[in-house]
Each structure stands twice: as structure tokens, then as C-alpha cells.
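Continuing the series of single-chain predictions for the mutant panel. This is the parent chain; the variants come on the following pages.
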Amino acid sequence: MKEVNHDMVSKYLKITLVAVLILSLIVPAIFFSFYNQRDNEIVIELWYTYEGGDVIGEAIAEYELRNPSISINFIEQPSSSWIDKFINVAQTGNAPDIFLAKGSWFGELAELGYIQSLTNFLTPSEEAEYITSGINGLSYNNELWGLPLWFDSILLFYNKDLFDNNAQSYPQENWTSVELLETALNLTNRPEDVYGLSWATISPYMWPAFQYGFDHGPLYQGGDIVVNDTASVNSLEYIYDLKYTHRCVKYDDSSSSATQAFSTDKAGMLIYGGWYIPALNELDVNYGVEVLPTISSTNQRITPMVEVKGWGMSKDTQNPDICYDIVRFLTSASVQENLLTEEYKVPTLKELESSPLVQDEPLILKQMKQIEYSQYYPLDPYYIIYSEFMRAALNFILLDHQDIQATLDEAQQNIEANKDE
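Parent structure:
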């Protein structure tokens, strides 16, 4: 029998024990590393408001696939009371890392110090990709507070069936307030509760369009908002006459009543935002859109406000570079193209202005034309003061029949008294 080499056996045993020891350390480490991978992910909270949630949700899923160490908590928020909710969570240091907001909200949040400036993130070459008015629409006090995602403006919608049934020509870009009134009267059938024109007349968001048409100029001028000048009085007299003298405007206590009337053939024309287009398509309403007409007495076009919707970043975020990378991705051409085709959103990237998706879509082109005839929302929180007092004034005038000049004088005094609060 061959003699056993005890030294060799001892050597192999030592090697085996060392290998087992090493494996006993490595395998659990690998296992627990894999098992706890989620604990090592960077979690970003994102608040989303307005239309297009499905598009953004798909884009977020794509971003997470490309960046497996990042998880985005996508939370849809209603627009009502949004600003108050954001301020409440920001006061506790728990604001979302990323959020979508309209321009006027950015100004207030910047003033309160709850959001980050993007000025030092955006390079000159990146800025050149965006339409200049989109960048300007989210800038305040020489700082950029958001990356623009789309433009929203107000249009004149018209019900083709009601027009055809009443032998009326469709609205044209060269229409004036004369054609608007004549057509609204011809479409009005009060016994059937059908009215020629509808919009939220008591909305301070809508009213500046008529101020401008009566030669007031932009809402915000040199740091001031004037609501009691001659142009403002004339614009409200015009609206009041449409409602109570000509009686061709109704269903205007709220946007919901106005849009409901239009979609159910109770209003021949509707002044409302382009965001209503997908809903009308789903309802299979036979409609068209046109830019708002000019006021015949001034030759100035009814000029609504443009809102820029964009992505911002909270001051609370612990991952600003990652957040900026996310918002850049969420304003990319592929995301904006999907919003354009599915939600008819007007893009903010220069490269898309001349794309077939834009040039071959009349509903987008008409919105872009209206934006050319529009004014931009101020980001100054002063606008919020204006909005609060003018909403009350419009109710007093158009629903309670109070004197126009006296009511506007009182609103002006209240706006000025609260300007610096």
C-alpha cells in the first residue's frame, strides 16, 4: 500500500479551508448587495400637474431603464391649491425634488426661496435649443427657474355643426369684433338655450385679452398693473353688453359650464385654452379653432395671456445634478414630440418648430399663430395680488351689476395697497 503523504494532505486541507472561508465572506456580501440594491437607489420625488401624465409616465420609465440606480416617484397633483400645498411641504423641508408648474407659480416660489435657480446648470449651448420666449417665460429677477416644456394660450373654438345649421361662415383670422358679434347673435337661440358665445367672463386670466384689445397694452407695465384706466372700463362695458344688452353670451360662471355648453351644442363659439383639444377629440365634437379677432374701434387684437409650463427643482433636493439631468430629459425632443401628437401641446424646442409634426398639424399651427398674438404671464408675485382682487371685481360687475368704474377704482386701490406684502 502506498504511504499517505501527510504533509500534502495537510496542505490541501489548509487550501480548502481558506477557500471556504473566502467564499463564506464573498457569497453573503454579493447576496446582500443584490438583495439590498433598492436600498442603495437614489429616489427622486416628482410632482406632475396638467395633461399628458401618460406621456410623462412613459418617459420616466425610459429614464429609469437607462439609469437603474435612480428611482423616480411620480405623483400626479391637481392644479387647484397646488401652490399652497407646495408651500406647506416646502416649509417642512419636504418639497418634491422636481415639479411641473406654470410660470406665475415659479415667481412666487422663487420669491419665497423654495426653489433652485437653473441659471448655473443650463449651458449656453443648451439654452440655444429652446425658443427664447420659453426661457424668458420662466425667468425672474435675471434668474432662470425652470426648463420650458410647452406653451399654453387661449383660442376661439367654433362648433362647425351649429355654424353649418345656421348658414354662418366659419371664423377667419381677419375677423373683427363686428363679425364676432354678428355671428354670435345669429347663432343665439334663447328658447333652445343656445348662445353664440361662451367663456369664463369672470376669470382674471381671460380678462387681460380684452384689456389689450381696447388699447390698454400688456397687463404688466413697468412694474405696475393698471385695472381702472379707460381701456379697462371700455373692455368691461363691451363684455357686459355682450351678456346683458345683446344677450348672446351665457354659460360663463365657470370654465366648466362654458366648456360643457360648447361640447353639447349649446354654445356656438368658445374662448378657451388649447389644452381642451384632446377632450373635444374624444367627445367627437365637430369643431374648428381660430385666433381671436381684433376690436374694430381700436384695431388692436384681443390678446390673451400665454402660460409657459415647465420643470423646476426644489431647494430641498439632495441630488441637484441628477434632478437637472432628469428635467433635461423630460424636455427632450422625443418627450415633446409625444406631447405634441397625443396632447396637441405647443413645443418649446427650436428644432420642432419646423418639423413635419408641427407643420402638418393645423391645430398646432393655429395655436402657434395665436401665441404670436399673445402676451406673456409675469412671474412677479404681484400678479397673484392682481388676480385675487380682480376675480372679486369681475364678479361684482358681471354678476352683481355694480358700477364698472367705481368697482375697478376700488380694485386698483386694493391691488396697490397689497403690492408689497
